[in-house]
Amino acid sequence: MDLDEIWQGNKRFITTVGAGLLVFLIGSLIIGGLYSPDIRRVERSNSASRQKLRTEMYTSADRTQARDENEELIARYERIASVTAFQPRPEFRIDQGGVAPQNVYFAAVEAVEDRVTDLASRNRAYLPAGLDLEEFKTQNVDAIERSLHAIDLLERAVVMAIESGIKQVKSVEIRLDPAFRSRRGLGAIEKTQVKIEVVSDPDAVALWIVACETPADGGSENSVRRQALPIESIDARRTASKADEVKTTVTFLVVRVNEVEDPDAEDA
To answer: Residue 182 — pLDDT band, cuts 50, 70, 90?
Structure first.
């Protein structure tokens, strides 16, 4: 079979293939002309990156410096956490030598009610019935512990309010951090709110705020002023009945610093 027979028998096929090859070559030349600078630039960048990977980017001195800085940051974090985190008094700690957590809570609430009621009576101040504390039914130990700490802060704030000359504690509300019951879990900082609404003259309110934010130097472990009480917000408004009287709502925070798991450590 000669070439003429091959051509005659496969003319359409050969023509189609040849046209396609010609289009491919022309397209390659056009694309190469348009994008070759970009391709060369990417190739140079890849080459430079591979070269960097072959060389040591950080020296042993750099690693030592990074480690020292990390240790210093950890030490600072621990110092800040120790000052910021709420420090419960002994009777408000859940570990009471084998006593059930619920019993620890009920005993603490009863003791607080007795103490502040007696103090209010001696200073002719008014408190809400039962300090507005809701009936506590949960058996969740973590919830009990957080509520105990809130009761501790509540007593401290109420005692300082009465001692500052406030004549009426109108209402009290305790609210655990919303993240406590969230599926996402708790973050590094957990905040339980303790809202206290009082009615008094502005001077007494001012004295109360100052007292709450000023810890006593060398205060004993049982002192109500052993630690400053963090305040999230203050809302003060004059009452309609008396021009020299204000209704003030102060939101205190029981701050808890939690350890956050490192996901990278778990993967490792």
So the answer is: confident
Burial of 46 (0-12, 13-18, 19+ CB in 10 A): exposed
**Are 88 and 152 spatial neighbours (Cβ–Cβ below 8 Å)?**
yes
**Axis crossing angle, helix 141-163 with helix 202-212, rounded to the nearest 10:** 130
Count the neighbouring beta carbons within 10 Å of the beta carbon of residue 166: 24
Per-residue pLDDT at 220: 78
Given 3-state DSSP classes, what are the helix, strand and coil percentages for the chain, each rounded to the nearest 5? Answer: 55, 15, 30
pLDDT at 260 (0 to 100): 59
DSSP string, 223-247: -TTSS---EEEEEEEE-SS-TT-EE
> In whole numbers, what is the pLDDT of the chain averaged over residues?
83
Mean pLDDT along residues 90-95: 91
Residue found under tokens 């410096």: 65
In 3-state terms, what secondary structure has residue 220? coil
Phi, psi of 121 (to 5 degrees): -65, -45
Angle at 190 between CA 185 and CA 194, to 5 degrees: 125
**Dist CA 210 CA 204 (whole Å):** 10
Amino acid at 141: V
